[in-house]
């Protein structure tokens, strides 16, 4: 952290033209550059008698940092003396979001919420705004996409009406910053980066130059004011934030909001997090009342049945640090074609094909010439190799027209030799399956794990052995 001088001696220097101001502005009035004004330590400047020497306010690597290494902002200190509250997370009031953020939102941070159009980013942020407002904090939503009337309408529908929640319809960055200045909110939400326009910057709104200017200005705004900014960034089908992913390095945190058009489930993943881990995933569901968090998602990916059905199997996959129980369903039909078709939904087609080949070649099951369908339940993605064993059992169940026992989960990667290979985090997966009432598990041999109380764990070394164990009577 920079040594904070008193408010009176704050000075902001343009990294582009060295113009000095006593107040932070989004755009340098001298050269017109956006987001170029940075706070400098006046004492350091005075001591050296030159402008443009960094006081160490972070954001290293910017242009104009001539000789920035000469004056350390603060002397080095033992790690034990570092104030742990520097990056203090403030809970947003939405547990699943806080989980991904690493405990909450950090003051002065810039967060990019990326996702495909229509996935529900605006709705999610309205929930965040409402939760924040209900805690007694002021929130400003700068909406460049929708009118304030549209946002109010959605707020009514989702129970987000609150006096602390302010709306302004602005697509001009300068006007947006004036709104921030006038209200002095404690959280700023910008929807979206691609529809904000920075005057004087080349290109259309949403273009690379525009999006970069808007993003870097909002990031410095967050840093200078200490107010966190969450900005929406639209991602195209190809997975790039329109005006590409180059803006990711300009922000502190990048979250991806993902979901399938045919499913109401939404997943929030940390892609980058300067203040925490990125291996967490948050679960949400899109309902008529907005985007609601799902604190316990596992049960959603199962068909709760009292009778087993042929062709289905259950496994546990890891999504980040979270174990999730999911169901696989398969069907095999006689095909008229020489190269029978394979239809996969939510599964890795190449892994399913590999498991099919192993079943045909090593276990002698007649599946090679069949048209095969394989799908997950509830829009879940089951792409991990650890789901191979469950995939194999589901397909074997289809081929033998015999259901697997109820209450069984299968965990293990399958190799081309038909061997069942070890998988990571077995203890955690078994615990989650047990919690949801599964009482028997098939696992690879030679794994280190702790079996949950009351769960029967059967170790298998090959897929054929697992098939025989579960479907022996067939
Ligand atoms: Zn300037």
Short summary:
With 474 residues, this protein is α/β, with parallel strands linked by helices.
Can you offer a commentary on this structure?
The structure is a single chain. With 474 residues, the protein is an alpha/beta fold. The chain has three domains: 1-84, no CATH class; 95-295, 3-Layer(aba) Sandwich (Rossmann fold), CATH 3.40.50.300; 300-471, 2-Layer Sandwich (Ribosomal Protein S5, domain 2), CATH 3.30.230. 24% of the residues lie in helices and 24% in strands. It has a nine-stranded mixed beta sheet with strand order 6-5-7-8-4-9-10-11-12, with helices on both faces. The protein has a four-stranded mixed beta sheet with strand order 13-14-16-15. Strands 2-1-3 form a three-stranded antiparallel beta sheet. Helix 8 crosses helix 10. The longest helix is centred in the middle third of the chain and has 18 residues, at 208-225. The termini are far apart. The relative contact order is 0.09. Mean pLDDT is 86; it is low at 1-7 and 46-69.
**CATH T-level fold name of the largest domain:** Rossmann fold
Which ligands appear in the coordinates? Answer: zinc ion
Helicity level = 10-25%
- How widely separated are the two ends? 69 Å
Number of helices: 10
The beta-strand count equals 21
Round the Cα radius of gyration to an integer and report it: 27 Å
Query: Uncertain runs with pLDDT below 50, 5 residues or more?
Result: 1-7, 46-69
Number of domains: 3
Give the CATH class of the largest domain: Alpha Beta
Find the structural class using helix and strand composition: alpha/beta
Average of the residue pLDDT scores: 86
- Sheet having the most strands: 9 strands, mixed
Globally, the shape reads elongated
At the fourth CATH level, what is the homologous superfamily of the largest domain?
P-loop containing nucleotide triphosphate hydrolases
- Taken as a percent bin, the fraction of beta residues is 15-25%
Which architecture name of the largest domain does CATH use? 3-Layer(aba) Sandwich
